[in-house]
Write a structure and sequence with these properties.
4 helices; elongated; 66% helix; 155 residues; mainly alpha
Length: 155
């Protein structure tokens, strides 16, 4: 079995490799920006009293390596925000499942770093990412369409 050596590659092989890698990296970057923008808008649609972090702090997820830790902070903040905000709007909160999906997503993203289990965790992370993002969009729309009431129900 021959080990690939990048230095032995001809120019056309390198060109085609780059033509595949650049669009994939751009797609991942744009997806990350749109995802973080959705979380940012969720925080912006909530009242300031319900926020545990400022909306601009969600963009810290763009920092490599640090984002693995910061995702846990954002997850907890989203859960607390939704609990407070939906209580203020007299709506039922079912955010524990959202938090659990996000927690498994954050953990599986860390396992993507390990070579031997990467191929199992990448599809898992992708599926959980889609589910989590759809839920974030649902709650973002819900907060944008409703307003807090004066007398929230007590729990």
């Amino acid at each position: 079995m021959q080990i690939l050596n990048i230095m032995d590659w001809r120019g056309d092989q390198m060109f085609y490799t780059i033509m595949v890698i650049i669009p994939i990296v751009l797609l991942l970057f744009v997806t990350a920006v749109l995802f973080i923008r959705s979380i940012h808008q969720l925080f912006e649609n909530a009242s300031p009293e319900s926020r545990t972090i400022e909306p601009i702090m969600t963009w810290l997820l763009m920092i490599p390596i640090f984002n693995f830790v910061w995702m846990f902070v954002v997850l907890k903040s989203v859960q607390q925000l939704l609990y407070q905000e939906l209580r203020l709007r007299n709506l039922e909160f079912k955010g524990d499942s959202l938090y659990n999906i996000g927690l498994v997503l954050a953990i599986s993203n860390i396992f993507v770093l390990f070579p031997y289990i990467r191929w199992v965790t990448i599809p898992t992370s992708l599926i959980l990412f889609i589910i989590y993002w759809r839920q974030i969009l649902k709650y973002k729309t819900l907060l944008a369409m409703t307003q807090p009431v004066l007398n929230p129900k007590t729990t």
